[in-house]
Write a structure and sequence with these properties.
The complex is a heterodimer of chains A (about 120) and B (about 120). By secondary structure, chain A is mainly β. Chain A has one domain: Immunoglobulin-like, CATH 2.60.40. Chain A contains no helices and eleven strands. In chain A, strands 2, 4, 5, 9, 10 and 11 form a six-stranded mixed β-sheet that branches. In chain A, strands 1-3-8-7-6 form a five-stranded antiparallel β-sheet, with no helix packed on it. In chain A, a hairpin with a 4-residue loop joins strand 7 and strand 8. In chain A, about 35% of the residues are buried. Chain B has one domain: Sandwich (Immunoglobulin-like), CATH 2.60.40.10. Chain B has no helices and eleven strands. The chains are: A mainly beta (about 120), B mainly beta (about 120). The interface between A and B is medium-sized, with 27 and 27 residues.
């Protein structure tokens, strides 16, 4: 049962253009969402997050949009740079309290390639 | 240290062998998580520690998997009688354990790639 889905295994974008990575979730209990970036042979690195009480969060070139009714979030990177080429993971948390707090549920990842 | 450190980076085991994977979290981080990442997939939760207490082990796939964090710092994930399906990257993450979500980001190590032959 895949509760967080990234349906695009890969995305190719020209340098300077916008990259849009998408993520869907099924569990209504999720209330906090994160994007991680992963380079080969490294661990995932936190990029940006959003609480379910918001619909947008921006940090420099990175913006995350949340559509709760559609259970959909997206990450926009503008402008895209070759150094952004990596695997991007969407992750979700739910505040069930107690032992569930903080556990991340990840999507399968999207490989982003930004061409010079 | 500056980040989460995991060792060894690579481990090759013969089927049936026991292995131990080590995680050194960021100093002062209360929460520690283990995840398993199969090839081409996202990380999947295995277990969670708050200091030395293992509060959630619901993701451990079988009783061959065992984790400990006896002094609330370094953690070890042990896999007994390894099987081929255990081949994966094992990731450790730590966080402050803060109530405020934005202050409680998980920081990951580079992982241990386990190959069971």
């Amino acid at each position: 049962d895949q509760q967080v889905k990234q349906n695009s295994p890969s995305l190719s974008v020209q340098e300077g253009r916008i990259s849009i990575l998408n993520c869907d979730y099924t569990n209504s209990m999720f209330d906090y969402f994160l994007w991680y970036k992963k380079y080969p042979a490294e661990g995932p690195t936190f990029l940006i997050s959003i609480s379910s009480i918001k619909d947008k969060n921006e940090d420099g070139r990175f913006t995350v949009f949340l559509n709760k009714s559609a259970k959909h979030l997206s990450l926009h990177i503008v402008p895209s740079q070759p150094g952004d080429s990596a695997v991007y993971f969407c992750a979700a948390q739910h505040n069930a309290g107690g032992t569930s707090y903080g556990k991340l549920t990840f999507g399968q990842g999207t490989i982003l390639t930004v061409h010079p | 240290g500056a980040g989460v450190s995991q060792s060894p980076r690579y481990k090759v085991a013969k089927r049936g062998q026991d292995v131990a994977l080590r995680c050194d979290p960021i100093s002062g981080h209360v929460s520690l998580f283990w995840y398993q990442q199969a090839l081409g997939q996202g990380p999947e939760f295995l277990t969670y520690f708050q200091n030395e207490a293992q509060l959630d082990k619901s993701g451990l796939p079988s009783d061959r998997f065992f984790a400990e964090r006896p002094e609330g710092s370094v953690s070890t994930l042990k896999i007994q009688r390894t099987q081929q399906e255990d081949s994966a990257v094992y990731l450790c993450a730590s966080s402050l354990g803060a109530i405020i979500r934005s202050k409680n980001i998980q920081y990951f190590g580079a992982g241990t790639r386990l190959s069971v032959l």
